[in-house]
Amino acid sequence: MKSICFLSVLFSLLTAPAVAQALPDGSVSADSVCIERQGEYLHISMNVDLDGLEVEGNQAVLLTPCLRQGKDSLELRSIGVYGRKRYYSYIRNGESLLTGSKELTYKRKEMPSEVAYADIISYDDWMNGAEVVLRRQDYGCCGSLLAEQWSVIGGYKEALVYVPHFVYVQPQVETVKTRSLDKSAYIDFPVSRTDIRPDYRNNCVELDKILATIDSIRGDADITITSLSIKGYASPEGSYANNERLARGRTEALRDYVAGLYHFSDGFIRTSYEPENWEGLRTYVAASSLANKEGILRLIDDDSLTPDAKERKIRASYPADYAHLLSECYPALRRSDYRIGYVIRSYTDVEEIKRILRTQPQKLSRQEFYMAAQTMEPGSDAFNEVFETAVRMYPDDEVTNLNAANTAMRKGDLPTAARYLQKAGDMPQAIYARGVYAMLTKDYAGARSLMETAQAQGVTEAGNVLEQLKRIDN
């Protein structure tokens, strides 16, 4: 089996506290700190409250947000607030302001009570996990530094949002698409007779059902019937020997009736029979509300008794329940099961496969469903529908359930994905898919164990998830 990985992009959400943080002297505070990474850049914004800031006429205050982590740090755009004398001193002497043209500059008397601060910087890996500091520096004449204080106002940490890589598995190619159709018919016979009377009771309807089933297959140019088998059942009342005669004779009569209409070759229709349908009786009793259900089941299961002895004991021990069984259960036990075996031709043209997908999906193999999906955009409605239809056609197939689970997880339908994963088997890709499910449900311990197993069994995508788990742990 071939694995195909349809990739999605992993992205990050950036977090920072929004609670106001103030300098030690309470003169300046910052709140609504927002840090967002957009590609190669880091966008920083906040509200800086200057309402408590006092600046002497011959002094200047510089407020500078900084990113720092370990030995790495970076100063952002500064806010400069200047007393009247200090501001005009800079202007008169032709000097630049404290930090140059990028600085947000205010004269003390024109200073707003709040500044909507924003800056953009180039992102570097060391910034993940950095703290955001607001530094205040007080300057006197000649640019002398008089005082300095700072406060941590936020932090920057990338919070991973896991978007999985889904690994779809290509099913094995069926060389011959062999299928079968199983049906039951309830043909009525007069007492002790084995000849079929089409006009007797409901026989016309039941016989037409058999013929319609055969015709629906024979009339399809893509299908070739390869076999037909009939198994007849009789009910347990009466002697076993007579029931064996009836089951055999009635089955042969139905075979001859069908063969006479279709002229199948000799031996094409295979027959078998069950003289007394005890399995069907037990199923009915077990699901019933009969007053003596448990006693009847014990008799049915008693292998020390012959079939005739069982039937006599049930009739003698529980006459009321037996009468109910005779009228309500036994007629349904007298039935003929038939199986039509056939072969469907293979399809290689994808456009033809898509047409059949819309009208007769039961004719497609698992591989043909997969071929159609490969021509569609992963995650699109059409793509999803292919795998959802495939799992309806092959509800017990492991590969089909795995691919359907991937589709359900891609759509965010985790309960449905869990149901499919239960039937996906233990192939490496299924272990990986269960790890994806664990990641999506934030079961990181379970995800780690599953991904380690999947990686050891050759699923390379599991290694990427394990690397992401390390970042989550940190």
UniProtKB/TrEMBL annotation:
Entry keyword annotation includes Signal: yes
Signal peptide: 1-22
DUF3868 domain: residues covered: 9-93
Presence of keyword Signal: yes
Gene3D superfamilies named in the record: OmpA-like domain, Tetratricopeptide repeat domain
Pfam name, any one: DUF3868
Domain of life of the source: Bacteria
UniProt xrefs under InterPro entries: DUF3868, OmpA-like_sf, TPR-like_helical_dom_sf
Alphabetically ordered keywords of this record: Signal
Record protein name field: DUF3868 domain-containing protein
